[in-house]
Design goal:
single chain; 512 residues; alpha+beta; Jelly Rolls; seven-stranded mixed sheet; four-stranded antiparallel sheet; 21 helices; globular
Length: 512
Amino acid sequence: MLSCKRSLLSQIMRRKKKNKKMTRKKTLIRNQNPQLEEEETADEVEDDRGEGFSLKDSAPSYSHGVQPLGNLLLSSSACNSRNTGLGNLRILTDELVLDILGFLDGTHLGVLATVSKSFYVFCNHEPLWKNLVLEYIKGGFSFNGSWKSTYISAFYHYFPVLNNGSSGLEVRDFYSDYLFQSWLCASLEMKQEWLERDNIERRRGFSVEEFVLNFEEPNKPVLLEGCLENWAALEKWDKEYLIRVCRDVRFSVGPVEMKLEEYFTYADRVREERPLYLFDPKFAEKVPTLGSDYEIPVYFREDLFSVLGDERPDYRWVIIGPAGSGSSFHIDPNSTSAWNAVIKGSKKWVLFPPDVVPPGVHPSPDGAEVACPVSIIEWFMNFYGATRNWRKRPIECVCKAGEVIFVPNGWWHLVINLEESIAITQNYVSRRNLLNVLDFLKRPNASELVSGTRDRVNLYDKFRTAIEASLPGTIDQLVSKAEEKAAKEKKPSFWESVTDTKVGQFKFSFAS
């Protein structure tokens, strides 16, 4: 957030020296600093390097006038209503204040919001109301433009509320980096420099053998073109079709379940930092028509987890989300590899190899938990630039409709939808990563690491037994092959041994 604060301050100081020529509809300063005339605002907010941040046309209006803390330095008043309105609670961080308010219900938040300007801002923080909706209304809600108005409409039908997401009052002297960043991350467009790097290898029309040799065995990502041409989903899967065939079926959306019509209503109207993501592992069982509208690309048809039948872990998902939704950095479950096929829209991918932890990401020593920035945009703002000069730079690409990306096991990856997108992804186990999966499943803390199954403790034994019954001798063959490969890598080459001999002879002669 410090870089955002600097960008705003430097922007203001530069504008005071310029002619007042440029105008626009929205900027980061509009409604954040009333002392600035609207005609002073520029089309972009520039940081210290001259790189621009642009606002979305649909930037959310629920900032409540919150300004970054650095703007207090330029204010004619030294008063920050954030502190005066909190009273003795002013010594707490903004995060802690919101954590405490998270224990309150909607009624108490509404009452507390009338105490002071500061409590008004805190108690109207959208994530507080989002949590209330998801906890108490579950999936049976119709999004009403903002989470607060959605909550009020659900519980107090007689109470008049605006249905356009309007923020209501604006506070002119409230300064907080933490609260401002939430609005900022929801408002920013993806910068062009975040999208222009595309260094993934792209292939079209090559054989399965070539894929295995060049990508699966070396555990290397690749983007595949032209292998979804027979998918009916590419032509049929729009909103109208999906709503019609799915009807009242509910799909997993974060912690709740929603009908597609409800979710699309939400996705069309939401303007927030972390939009809800539809990510359902049982879509083909719930609506068999969806399962028949696609087929597994030929490169990924060896899936050894299938020997478990109905006991196999979750392995396929339909993914739907608006622009800005996505998945922060993670490694796919159970040491599996994966493929992700875009049906509608486009996705930005950033991938790091297993031995490189992305900047800003902090996995626990046992790998059970991962701490990372609150939102994907926040990671791009604060950490993406650090990778420019890395020796092991990330693999990046934009995957468009009709394209498939192969994500090898163990790779860290982040995905953000650049527009409303629909995709299908599957995790799988082939002979190339079978031993990795077996090693993962028998770790001492496997009960915490294994996911997608009700029986985490016994999955290793079940899987190994099923493989040996279905493919006898396969595991032993793969172990022998791996041992031979390891021995070959350790054994010095002929020329290395010759060099070592000469060095040894020289040392011996010198010592004599």
